[in-house]
Amino acid sequence: xxxxxxxxxFEVVINEMQNTGRNLxxxxxxxxxxxxxxxxxxxxxRTLRIPLR
Length: 53
What we know:
Blueprint: H1 6-18, H2 24-52
């Protein structure tokens, strides 16, 4: 993919998401819900890995 300024990259991503045929708001809500679980799980994983070494 050619290099674009950050704003252009964001627009490309939004356009691709809209072209999936899925509801964009629903897709974003699912991603946010997924991140709400993933980020704390990753933090716990990294925190516990240090003392276990």
